[in-house]
Specification:
heterodimer; A: 305 residues; mainly alpha; MetI-like fold; two-stranded antiparallel sheet; 2 strands; globular; B: 310 residues; transmembrane helix (chain A); cell membrane (chain A); membrane (chain A); Carbohydrate ABC transporter permease (chain A); transmembrane (chain A)
């Protein structure tokens, strides 16, 4: 699987070879890069800057460069308005609970499954791996509605005894997304690149499979853990369709669905921009801190087969 | 055809036997697999099977009565519904535009930043920012910019263009959604193209340059052939994502105006969730599933073609 180590890496950046040497070409390329940066960056700048302005100023500023500059009557009113209008802390807490548990449990369950598939020989191994990979082509949206019906039939046991139906709970936002075919695949691929001599040695020392998983393979799997964590955190934090359908109570609602409150009655664009800014901030902060890991994770999702 | 990865069942030179351990390897393997398998069966395999079953019943989301088999009724209703055909048409148009345009722009971006020049990482990061921003936030932001008196029309007015009510006009609404969808996702495919570009050995370019090939011929004869596999992957993922179009529509237009932005998934959610008609929504899901299956069969075809050439 480690194609990167076999292919000689390009020392000279390929497309650059000879092509960009003409000054006109170079200038055009540089200009293009800057223009595109404006197209991708300015709307987000506009969002953040507007969140600090009263509505009338937002509209007054549209006609000039001021729309993208933090100038004029800056205020935190929009943010205070957001806290007034929705149980904001609760929404954020719900998003954190759902994302952290989905990512954490997912790392455990998927890495164990991948370890068994990669390291331990048993009958049916090949079929299981094939079925897991085959499910990758089914987009979640195709089965979301049948899953919604099915969730309502599932039993649940808690302190109050046995009940039917998972709708309007935390678990329905978390449990269906723990096992993930793509995570298993990424771990499987990574484990296969870890030399088997290492577990042979541990086995000679009397370690059992669980111990090899925990003390030999997982400590070496840092990059795979990071990739899977990022690739499962983003959809968990950003999910919208599923919580929209399965959560009715305000106490269980995640932050993304909370945005619908701002579209009803007295639309204040300043407040909407403030809400959009704070629910994006955690992801943006993580992205800025771990850019390299984020980008290589997304890139690795393309290096299939 | 087996999937791209074949399980490493018998690694060469690895004389491990099943009985060297006191523990039974087979039992341990199953114990480690059980959580993942139980979860995938419960939340993936069963719902997929249910899609097929429920589509032929009158099941409702919450109902005291058990679902009843009603044959092809859901499909008869579906295929005679103008809203469904309009939604399917919108979804196909969306996919037909998004797939080539987004992959081409993504490739352009990747080529533009595939250089070891100072500052290139900065541009890559900026182009990538919308990818980590949720579609919910992006939709609200663009909804604001698309207002009749919003940022986009104010900018257009500066160059003398009288912008329409982008989301309120049936002629422009789907186009407006296409633009923001590309803006949000193109950075992701840029990064995937880029990793494809970086697997092409530099010597190939040197050889091509020695043969007197200019940038365009180098692209045509070195870059593009080297990206074949990446291209297949990108086309398939964009297509499937395009057919799943929902969030933007639900937030910005609710399928309107006049069904101009209604999509297959939007209709499935409207009927299966809001109107609680699980059976009917499953029929819609089944049609959607059939489309995705056809698309991935096409992918298989291309992959096989590529392997045969080697």
């Amino acid at each position: 699987m480690s194609t990167a180590t076999h292919t000689p890496k390009a020392k000279v950046p390929p497309a650059a070879a000879g092509a960009h040497n003409h000054p006109v070409v170079r200038a055009a390329v540089a200009l293009g890069r800057v223009l595109l940066a404006l197209i991708f960056g300015l709307p987000l700048v506009f969002m953040i800057v507007s969140s600090f302005k009263p509505d009338n100023q937002i509209f007054a500023d549209l006609a000039s460069i001021n729309a993208f500059l933090p100038l004029g009557d800056l205020t935190l009113e929009n943010y205070l308005g957001v806290f007034d209008r929705v149980p904001f802390a609760r929404f954020m807490l719900n998003s954190i609970i759902v994302s952290v548990l989905t990512v954490g449990l997912g790392l455990l369950v998927n890495s164990m499954a991948a370890f068994a598939l990669s390291r331990i020989q048993f009958r049916g191994q090949k079929i299981i791996l094939t079925v897991i990979l085959a499910t990758l082509i089914v987009p979640f949206e195709t089965m979301a509605l049948p899953l919604l019906w099915w969730s309502n039939q599932l039993p649940w046991i808690d302190a109050n005894g046995l009940s039917q139906g998972w709708l309007d709970t935390y678990q329905i936002q978390i449990v269906p997304f723990i096992a993930n075919a793509f995570s298993i695949y990424l771990f499987y691929q990574y484990f296969d690149s870890i030399p088997r001599e290492l577990d042979e040695a541990a086995r000679v020392d009397g370690a059992n499979w669980f111990r090899i998983y925990r003390s030999v393979v997982m400590p070496l799997a840092g990059p795979a853990v990071a990739t899977v964590a990022i690739l499962t955190f983003l959809p968990a934090w950003n999910s919208y369709l599923w919580p929209l359908m399965v959560v009715q109570s305000e106490e269980l609602r995640p932050a993304m669905v909370g945005i619908d409150y701002f579209k009803q009655l007295n639309v204040s664009w300043g407040q909407i921009m403030a809400y959009a800014t704070i629910i994006t901030a955690p992801v943006l902060a993580l992205f800025i801190s771990f850019q390299r890991a984020f980008i290589s994770s997304i890139a690795s999702s393309g290096v299939k087969g | 055809m087996p999937p791209a990865v074949t399980p490493d069942l018998a690694p060469a030179g690895n004389p491990r036997s099943r009985t060297t351990l006191g523990h039974q390897p087979v039992t341990v393997a199953w114990l480690m697999l059980v959580p993942a398998i139980v979860l995938m069966v419960t939340f993936l395999i069963i719902p997929i099977i249910l899609t097929f079953g429920l589509a032929f019943t009158n099941a409702r989301l919450i109902s005291p009565e058990p679902a009843r088999f009603i044959g092809l009724d859901n499909f008869t209703r579906l295929f005679s519904s103008p809203t469904f055909w309009r939604s399917l048409q919108n979804t196909v148009v969306f996919a037909l535009v998004i797939v080539p345009v987004q992959s081409a722009i993504a490739l352009g971006l990747a080529l533009l930043i595939n250089a070891k020049v100072r500052g290139v990482n900065f541009f890559r990061t900026v182009y990538f920012l919308p990818v980590v921003t949720s579609m919910v936030v992006v939709s609200m932001l663009w909804m604001f910019m698309y207002q009749p008196n919003g940022l986009i029309n104010v900018l257009l007015a500066k160059i003398g263009i009288d912008g329409p009510d982008w989301l309120g006009d049936p002629r422009t609404a789907l186009f407006a959604i296409i633009v923001l969808s590309i803006w949000q996702a193109v950075g992701m495919h840029m990064v995937i193209w880029l990793s494809g570009l970086q697997t092409i050995p530099g010597e190939l370019y040197e050889a091509a340059a020695l043969d007197g090939a200019g940038p365009w011929r180098q692209f045509l004869h070195v870059t593009w052939p080297g990206l074949r596999q990446t291209a297949t992957f990108i086309l398939i993922t964009i297509t499937i994502a395009a057919f799943s179009l929902f969030t933007q529509v639900n937030i910005m237009t609710q399928g309107g105006p006049l069904d101009a932005t209604s999509t297959v998934v939007f209709q499935a959610v409207r009927t299966g969730f809001q109107q609680q008609q699980t059976g009917y929504a499953s029929a819609i899901s089944l049609v959607f599933f059939a489309i995705v299956l056809v698309v991935s069969l096409i992918q298989r075809y291309f992959t096989r073609d590529k392997e045969a050439r080697r």
